[in-house]
Design a protein that fits this description.
Strand content: under 5%
Number of helices: 7
Order of helices and strands: HHHHHHH
Helix content: 55-70%
Structural class: mainly alpha
Shape: flat
Distance between the termini: 59 Å
Number of strands: 0
Length: 219
C-alpha cells in the first residue's frame, strides 16, 4: 500500500478515535457508560444523527451549533479530533504501518485523554490508566524490540516510584500530595516506555512538583 494512503487512513482512524475520546472524557468522570445512550447534545440532549457526528466535518458544516437547539458546541470536540488525527498520522509517518506505530499512537492518545480529564474534572479515570497498563503489556507480549519483561518492570517501577513520591509528599506537606490516579498513570507510562523512561518521567515530574508545589504551599 502506498505510504500516502497509509497516512490518510491513519489520520482518519485517529479522527474517529478522537471523537470517541471526547465521549470518554465527558462520561467516564461521571461514571456513565461510553456505549449507551448514543451521542447527544449536552444542552438539549437531542440524539446526534450519524451524519452530524462525522469528526471535524460535521462541526464545520453545522458551524459549531447543535442542529436541534442551535446551542453552540464546544470547540474542544473538533480540536481533540484533530489532535488525535495528528498523533496517529505522525506515528504512521514515523514508523509506517507497524505495531510500533499503533503502540505509540495508543500511548499518546491515552496521555491526551488523561490530560483532558485531569484538567476538566481533576480526576484520572482508571479506564485510561489501568486500562493503559493492560494495553502496554499486550503490545509488549509479541516478540519485538520492546519485550514484555521491560514493560512489566517499567510498570512496577513507575507505580512504586510515584507511590513513594506520594508518600513522601504527604509526610512533608502533611496532606495528600498525589492521588492514586497519578500513581496508576505512572504505571501505565512505565508499561509503554520501560524502566528508564519511567524513571526519567518521575524525576522530571518530581522536580517540577518541587519548583511549583513548594512555593504554592508556602504562599
Amino acid at each position: 500500500m502506498p505510504e500516502t494512503l497509509i497516512w490518510i487512513y491513519a489520520a482518519l482512524v485517529g479522527a474517529a478515535i478522537g471523537s470517541f475520546l471526547n465521549v470518554c472524557v465527558s462520561r467516564l468522570p461521571a461514571g456513565e457508560s461510553v456505549i449507551s445512550p448514543r451521542s447527544r447534545c449536552p444542552s438539549c440532549e437531542h440524539p446526534i444523527a450519524w451524519y452530524d457526528n462525522i469528526p471535524v466535518v460535521s462541526y464545520l458544516l453545522l458551524r459549531g451549533r447543535c442542529r436541534a437547539c442551535e446551542t453552540r458546541i464546544s470547540a474542544q470536540y473538533p480540536l481533540v479530533e484533530l489532535a488525535v488525527a495528528a498523533i496517529w498520522l505522525a506515528m504512521a509517518v514515523r514508523f509506517g504501518a507497524s505495531v510500533e506505530a499503533l503502540r505509540g499512537a495508543t500511548f499518546l492518545t491515552l496521555l491526551l485523554g488523561i490530560a483532558l480529564t485531569d484538567a476538566r474534572h481533576m480526576v484520572i479515570p482508571d479506564h485510561f490508566s489501568l486500562g493503559g497498563v493492560l494495553l502496554g503489556l499486550v503490545f509488549a507480549a509479541p516478540p519485538g524490540d520492546f519485550p514484555l519483561g521491560r514493560a512489566i518492570t517499567g510498570a512496577a517501577l513507575g507505580y512504586g516510584l510515584l507511590w513513594l513520591v506520594a508518600w513522601g509528599g504527604e509526610k512533608v506537606f502533611r496532606k495528600p500530595a498525589l492521588g492514586m490516579g497519578d500513581v496508576h498513570m505512572m504505571a501505565m507510562v512505565g508499561a509503554f516506555v520501560g524502566t528508564s523512561g519511567a524513571l526519567l518521567t518521575v524525576l522530571l515530574g518530581s522536580v517540577l512538583g518541587l519548583l511549583v508545589g513548594v512555593p504554592i504551599s508556602w504562599w
